[in-house]
Amino acid sequence: MKKIAVTAIIALSLAGCSQSGNGYGTKQTVGTVGGAVAGGALGSRFGGGTGKLITTGVGTLLGAYLGSELGQSLDRADEGYAQQAASQAYSAPIGSTIQWNNPESGNRGTITPVRDGRDSSGAYCREYQQTVYVNGRAQQANGTACQQPDGSWRIVS
């Protein structure tokens, strides 16, 4: 039990170094810490003496890795919200601003179609301006998306 407590303290200390501005850390950090604690606890149940230390360490590392991967994939929910907004922007009137928000992460953004036309092959295209707020900081980008023959859209720049 003492080794589990030490493992948890180390994992939480490391997580404190990478917390975001909201005080809770990113989903990836939380997943890493949770995985490390659970993996260390599980690993400590096997072996004896030096073997127990090794299984605890391996469990901690493996749990941290798996938890980190899970936390990172959860952040992909932001992409889903942004893609849904982009789909709406492709058919919205020029100058209309479409907003998206992920209430879980607090990240949000806007996308505004600013001009439309045709590319050299005749495909219908739209230029857009996009602003994404991650941890309260704005990141801006411009781009162009063109409609494919099947009706889907592809970002070309």
UniProtKB/TrEMBL annotation:
Top-rank taxon: Bacteria
Domain Surface antigen: 74-156
Keywords: Lipoprotein, Palmitate, Signal
Annotated ranges, domain Glycine zipper 2TM: 30-71
InterPro entries to which the protein is assigned, alphabetical: Anti_2, Gly_zipper_2TM_dom, Surface_antigen_Rickettsia
PROSITE patterns linked: PROKAR_LIPOPROTEIN
Listed Polar residues bias regions: 100-110
Keyword Signal part of the UniProt annotation: yes
Chain residue ranges for the region called Disordered: 100-120
Extent of the signal sequence: 1-23
Keyword Signal found: yes
Topology of this chain in the membrane: Lipid-anchor
Family: Belongs to the rickettsiale 17 kDa surface antigen family.
Name of this protein: 17 kDa surface antigen
